[in-house]
Amino acid sequence: MKHPAPEQLALFSGGDLGRWERWRISRHAAHCPECAREVQALRDSAAELRQLAGESPAFPNTLNWNRLAEEITGNIRVGLAAGEAIARFDKPLRATQRLQSKFGPRFNWNLALVGVGAMVIFAVAFWTSLPPRQAEHLLGSLNRIRTERIGTLIHSTPAAIASPEDVILEASSSGIQVRENGRALSLIPHSDGATVSVDMHGSAGVRYVDADTGQVTTNKVYYAQQ
Amino acid sequence: MRSSSALAAFALGLVPWNGVFAAALPKIDLPPDSPVALLSADYGESSEIARGSAMLIDVHAALSLRNSSQRKIRGITLVVTAQDVTPGGKGSVTVTSLDVGPQESFPVRIDLRLLRPLQASSGVPVQIGLDGVLFDDLSFYGPDKLSSRRTLTLSEFEARRDRRYFKSVLASGGPEKLREEMLSSLTHQADRPSLDVEVVRGGRATNFEPEKQVQFAFLSMPDSPVEPVGGMARIAGNEARAPRLEVKNRSDRPIRYLEVGWILHDHSGREFLAGSVPAELNLAPGQKRQILEDATLRFPQLGGQPLGIEGMTGFVSSVEFADGSMWIPTRGDLDSPQLQRVVAPSDEEQRLAQIYRKKGLKALISELNKF
């Protein structure tokens, strides 16, 4: 039995393969205990690392898919706007061409059908080769552009997702954390029953009465510019 | 091995300690004229473990500081930075409601965890410094880069207000009435809803849900020098972002800082204190001003259920005048049912309630009589 390459197994364990490759490797792993064990070990390590990183979406992935989604959205938006501008500029010329075609050679339906068929095949192949998370981002980006242009929502959200490069402050009764690019600094209360607070200027805090000393202690994290 | 000289040796990277390499131990840096001196630092259960491609460093520091000034210390803020780990962020540890006389010592406990890639540069990852010390005459020492003067002074004002209140309860109703008050406070602390929250810089969306603009309702506080006139924020699912408030100075003194508490209501009628909207401004008497904050609050989950935000209420929680004096709500203001449900008791009330819970009524009365 030919085993998939280790990097294929790693991508499979992280859900980073396209539909076809995913199906192929899952079929193999179902019948190959050795590869199934390897996939499970990779998943366990990834889960542990995510937990350590405070469920950071940036960790352990190094490629910034959110930024990529933003760029795709931006590029498509610019492309559409440019298309509209050219269409306006080109209108008189097209009208002339339409008049010419009315009396010129007949429209080639066979050629058009082949073209459309090729586009459909390309789109399906592209879509199935995309890992699910990236496909989700792309769908979200396209949906936002559709929303902006057609206007089905009263007000759409801006085309952005929290970037892994963002400094994120997190507060819960079990501690506070400042997280940045998969790295984190946490301050942990030395007691149960802590009170969480945040301010919109950029700080998150947790206050508790120290179990040993009885002192009221407040741990806070801030954006660095403060 | 607990003296500051030993600490310096560890900080220089000479000796490993309990499995933590000295390079991972904090460097403690107090100014030469600091009113507090480091007596000792114990890193008892600190550890450093490699996990996959990351390094997890747990630092448990029990510092012992001495008041080397001639005044009583009421509060202190230490700043914690880890430049290698989070260049965009920093932390602080503040201890309030202190009563430390000259030459007396007091503990400060810092429990922190660092996560960084294995290949990250070595060196001292954590530095601990002094941001400020507040004395009993409300004078202050320190660089105040984290606005510790304001935080510590507000906390001291609240402590004085609450001690005065509990003393008056004791004087008018006797020990039994004080006991009732403490039981009520402990119940309030236990019942108060709490939720996890994230703050992301910028008013950027982090989900794909449609957003709506929601107007603030405001709680009336007749004595407040600031009147919130109107406001709104953008809400999308479990996110609230970019609050915009309009406030009016109805006092006869200029104001330089104010803070508005922000209560959220979800679709099932639950209420939470989401956070506060602070503003440094220059607000002359009678003047109106808009406050804008470009940040997003995200509430991941609440009891396993997503939080669907439906409404918001704001209230003025503190004001600082240009002359440095401050206003905080009275106990009467805080007795409003809505604030009672969501606002946490002050630092001092929490401390007094813990004294009652752990040591009993006599110890509490004795503590109140110290002031």
Shape of chain B, please? globular
CATH class of the largest domain in chain B equals Mainly Beta
Taken in chain order, the helices and strands of chain A follow as HHHHHHEEEEEE
User: How many extended strands of chain A?
Assistant: 6
What's the SSE pattern of chain B?
HEEEEEEEEEHEEEEEEEEEEHHHH
Mean pLDDT of chain B: 84
Structural class of chain A: alpha+beta
State the end-to-end CA separation of chain B.
Answer: 38 Å
Task: Estimate percent helicity of chain A.
Answer: 40-55%
CATH architecture of the largest domain in chain B, by name, is: Sandwich
- The pLDDT mean of chain A sits at 68
- Number of separate helices of chain A: 6
- Under CATH, the topology of the largest domain in chain B can be stated as Immunoglobulin-like
Structural class of chain B: alpha+beta
Tell me about this structure.
The complex is a heterodimer of chains A (226) and B (371). Chain A contains 6 helices and 6 strands, in the order H-H-H-H-H-H-E-E-E-E-E-E. Chain A is of the alpha+beta class. Chain A has 3 domains: 6-52, no CATH class; 65-150, no CATH class; 168-222, no CATH class. In chain A, strand 2 and strand 3 form a beta hairpin. In chain A, helix 4 crosses helix 6. Chain A is elongated, with a radius of gyration of 26 Å. Residues 55-64, 98-104 and 146-164 of chain A have low confidence and may be disordered. Chain B has 371 residues and is an alpha+beta fold. In chain B, 23% of the residues lie in helices and 41% in strands. Chain B has 6 helices and 19 strands. In chain B, the strands form 3 sheets. In chain B, strands 10, 11, 12, 13, 14, 15, 16, 17, 18 and 19 form a 10-stranded mixed sheet that branches. In chain B, strands 1, 5, 6, 8 and 9 form a 5-stranded mixed sheet that branches. In chain B, strands 2, 3, 4 and 7 form a 4-stranded antiparallel sheet that branches. In chain B, strand 11 and strand 12 form a beta hairpin. The longest helix of chain B has 44 residues, at 148-191. Chain B is globular and about 50 Å long. The two termini of chain B are 38 Å apart.
